[in-house]
Amino acid sequence: MLEDKVLQEDWLVACRSEDVKEKPIQVVLMGERLAIFRNSKGVHAFKDLCIHRGAALSLGEVKNDCLVCPYHAWEYGDNGDCVKIPQLPEGKPIPKKAKATSYSCMEKYGFIWVNLAGNQPDIFPYPEMDGTEFHNVIWGPQEVQAKPPRIIENFLDVGHLAVVHEGYLGAETHREIENYKVNYEDGRIYSDEIAIFQPDPDGSGQAKYVYYTYEILRPFTVRFTKRDREKDTLMTIMLTVRPVDEETSIAYGILSFNYETGLSDEEIIAFQDEIFSQDKPIVQNQKPEELPLDLQVELSLVSDRVSIAYRQYLKELGVVLGTA
Ligand code: FES
Ligand code: CO
């Protein structure tokens, strides 16, 4: 498992809820292979390793709420204890060591989250999913050959919108970023509303300013809300990233709208995929791969305040993975 105590003790996204049906699946998280499965009690995450002969439990099946190893059919209950060994003569006790390593696992916001330290901390709030006011669309997986902090920082980067996403999320004529603050309040870290001039933010063909508020939720989970002041509508995108191993990350998100977009979920996802495909070559080729947390490294502008706040946040928390 990749060393990073802060991340091991956090809820990290493993996959989408819809990825875990009746068959167990293998998910690599922080270099650790996990078998994730669903039974009548919910979702569960084990180390993907059978103590008998090292088979991958994710190749097995779920039977009577147990995860059954594909090799010799040992059966593991959802707390990891082995409850049946078919090769043992009747009446022989199951060895105490016959256990699978189980991690904390929960399902929330359309995703499966795993805590590798076995803790159950509170998960970040995402009020857009609490009521019925917002239409929510699950986005991802999107594999990226980059470390999570570079991907997250790109999402928090205001200055690139009118360059990388010129014609989509910004205009070449409006690259200047007005002054704004980052607020620290009640444990929240969020920016003021930042005016961004967009060619067609609401699909009417009319260019205008919309207002972005960025917020840092967790080391690898952030969000922004875009507000249309004329129509008084909100769109939020939450981005969360799974560190797979040293090279690979997988991005997921939730796109939330409190208005009728006139688009199908597939069209919403396709648009987000296109935006992300514009960011990907940038992020995959940034050097150093590790996000520099020393603010003397690289050259920040005032408009980079959200990124700076993110770097300071990671530094204060002591996040190591993907940072330098
Ligand atoms: Fe799992 Fe033998 S390797 S039961
Ligand atoms: Co971008």
Explain the overall architecture.
The protein has two domains: 5-115, 3-layer Sandwich (Rieske Iron-sulfur Protein), CATH 2.102.10; 127-317, Naphthalene 1,2-dioxygenase Alpha Subunit, Chain A, domain 1, CATH 3.90.380.10. It is 15% helix and 34% strand. The strands form three sheets. Strands 11, 12, 13, 14, 15, 16, 17 and 18 form an eight-stranded antiparallel beta sheet that branches. The chain is elongated and about 80 Å long. The mean pLDDT is 97. With 324 residues, it is α+β, with helices and mostly antiparallel strands. Strand 12 (182-185) and strand 13 form a beta hairpin. It contains five helices and 18 strands. FE2/S2 (inorganic) cluster binds at residues 50, 52-53, 55, 69, 71-72, 74. The site of FE2/S2 (inorganic) cluster has 8 residues, from loops.
Q: Which range best describes the helical content: under 10%, 10-25%, 25-40%, 40-55%, 55-70% or over 70%?
A: 10-25%
Ranges where pLDDT stays below 50 over 5 or more residues in a row are none
Which class best fits the helix and strand makeup?
A: alpha+beta
User: What's the count of strands?
Assistant: 18
Beta-strand content estimate: 25-35%
Computed Rg? 22 Å
Mean pLDDT: 97
The CATH topology of the largest domain comes to: Naphthalene 1,2-dioxygenase Alpha Subunit, Chain A, domain 1
Number of individual domains: 2
